[in-house]
Amino acid sequence: MSQFLQFFLSGLGLGAVIALLALGFVIIFKATEVVNFAHGALLIAGVYVAARSRELYKWSFPLAMTAGILAAAMMGLIIERLLVSTMRARRADVIAIGIMTIGVEILMRTEVNRRLGTKVMSMGDPWGAKSVKIGSIIVPQTRVAALVLGGLILGAFFTWFKFSSWGVAMRAAAEDAQATALMGIRLSRVSAVAWVIAGVLAAIAGLFLCAYPTPGFDANASRLALAAFPAAILGGLDSAGGALAGGLIVGLADQLANGYQKNLTFLGDGVSAVVPFFVMLIVLLIRPSGLFGTKEVGRV
Amino acid sequence: MSEIVAERLAVTAMVTRLASGPRRVSRGPLVAKIVLVALAALLPFVAGRSWTSVCVLALTAAIGAIALNLLVGTTGQLSLAQPFFLVVGAYGYTLFASQPVKAIAGQSDGSLGFHLPPLLAAIVAVIVAGILGLAFSPISSRLRGIYLGVASLALVEIGQHFIRSAKNMTGGFTGRDVPPLNIFGFVAKDETPNPTFLGHALGKSERLYLIALLLLVGVAWFTNNVIHGRPGRALQALRDNQTSAAVMGVDVRRYKAMAFMTSAMIAAVAGVLLSQFFGHLVPDNWDFDLAVSYLAMVVIGGLGSVSGSILGAIFVTFLPFVMNRYGEHIPGVISGSSTSGFATPGQLSALIFGGAIVLLLLFEPGGLAALFRRVPRALKRA
Amino acid sequence: MSIDTTVASLASVQSVTVRFAGLVALNDVSFEVKPGTIHAIIGPNGAGKSTMFNVLSGVYRPSEGRVMYDGHELNRMQPHKIAGIGVARAFQNIAIFPHLSVEDNMMLGRHHLTKAGFLSAGLRLPSARKEDRIHRDRVREIGEFLELGALMDTPAGGLSYGDRKRLEVGRAVCTEPRLLLLDEPVAGMNHDETRRMAVAILEIRRALDITVMLVEHDMGMVMALADHVTVLDFGRVIADGTPAAVQNDPEVVRAYLGTEASVPQTGAP
Asked: ipTM score here?
């Protein structure tokens, strides 16, 4: 039982982090109908700047983290202003824009790879490899911090999403872009803010994902954002609440499969990598638009 | 209000096509095509062996790119599952064609094999890919384009997991040798001594090249016919407007599923060829990055165009090779003697692919195919 | 032309109600469509005319009621099945496929009449080639009929607005329907184009023996062409009868005065 609790807590911690990523992914989709395959690019932009500024200027962790978050937000804004909104202005198909973001992902990943080579950068976070002991349960401090901080950020976001004018505009935009535009809401601002927030969330998630038990930040870190895909899809691409649920499900599935690996050998080695995708497929079989996604109605 | 919504949707449907290039590629003069293929068939007897080898890879990639383009360009269904069906083709062929190996305690784990004649093994592997493609239809037929792109990532992960875990079929991390393809006595392997043709040895690379070229011609012809025939019209219609296609009588779900299955089978053909090229299969390289590079071929070549797929495949395959080979002459490339530079050949190629995808989608969504069509027109005007 | 009530209906709309998230788009709508007629559905903006067509072609499923056509219950069928039993639709907002040629757009209308699958089309089997030839001949005939003959090889995206509208109608005719739904076929057309379209619609009914349902804002056209008119307002049927009877209905006059500046007037198209 205590073992289960340990995996469960760890899974919640990981889930909160994945939820941050998935949330950004969903916000972008809601605001622009674009599936952002460059989510990993946002993540590594943030983490790279954080790790690099620590290395160069010996900044404290909070300061470096802030720099990283700003960099990722900046990156999101640049992608949105320079590329996405340009393509939207030309009435490009959302699939074309989605593929374009894959191009951005390749560029960003290659650039980090070029700068880093085989180097692994440590995050210098205050938690390190330490663990917390709660009764008989041992959980890495990073996971507890992720759970607490992630929970706070998610809570703050949902409150803000519910009450701020941007949140209202955003939800209206997702309902009916044309009508929203008629009501005088500037869609371009909704879209730009969405990308900035996605950048912020991705950077925070990235800082946790590159901390213990991961050895650090390396050239492959953008793959960490892959976990956001099944989370966002199984929750429902157009549902912020779904992103939260999806993130937690993926985090739990990952950690439980990882923890009970010895009992799951019949499923093959390293099964925890595929489990989130399996869960996603099962959900899609039952609900093609995800757990909380809206079913689309065909219109002519 | 509903009028406004309808209007907006119609405008989006009309104007926002994936590619702006004309979809109707003229059949072109048949003679020119035959001459082109004949010249291509002579290539390995003129070029060196390493070039022939890259050409095999390019021809194989072209088949895979045509398969993906049928889905992404013609049907508007984004798929990243290409590596999965390449795996099914490559590992499936190997499994069906290999002799079984009995496990010897403490020495070898043994492996499964069906020892089918190679050509039959290849056909069975392609059929298995079709069955698996169809099995995915509850998902491939119900999801709209962009969702499918993400959902199909699951297949990539499952494929990799299968390779790592099903050791008696795939050889796991140690990998597995691939039996040579044998098409009515034309075996894709080196003989001692190799027969010569035009003063050039007809070895494994040359044979594989000819087989790949033959298959590419067949696949290109078939896919072109599909696109310009009844199924292709239905696919393009549902890409442009699902509701309107359904009202015209197109069973949208069935056609999405069929497109996915057809694409899976053609990709498996490329997988069989890849297995021949490698000779020994290992778990690397069947990942997300491979899916992305196929997508790069399709976008760079031109969405919805068969000839574009071939151009894109050639470009994406040759670029890193050329960079590697002539890297020392290219400023900024880290290669051989020049260890200080901007980027390695691989990195520079990746930057070019990424940049090409972004720039083409911004400025020329029709890809290389559209650019090529435009050149003669521009020349005429000049 | 008066409607003979003894003739069996081709289509029968029975107490159809459509709701979207709390909004009632159609409210207990019933009417009959007699074979061989031109049956117009009119009403102010947002009255539910296009929703009615969406129900008839299977795009929307009514919350209540049913739609019978030739013994089939349309409200239980998928759109592509409905196309297969002879109900065709030309869209208001032109849903032609711009990258396909005019001929291929019209060939799409033959989809449910043809069989070639991936394999037979891909391998160009004799059956697929023969089928293609036969149906292209018929499509060219219909193209001539709608004055699109000279444009058959042009990409549809390059056509003028009026020609695109004609193509939209032509493609629907290519499905060899018995019931043709035309959603605002002359919207945005100039006077000459409108006249040509009106003639074409009369020809379609006469020469091809197709029953036509028409949603249209151009009252002159409606009054000149229609045998029977159903008037919708806020999702309800407020009048149903011959053009002359409907035109003088006080409720119809009120509905139009309430929302639009002009009262429908009879006039030459």
From this structure: 0.87
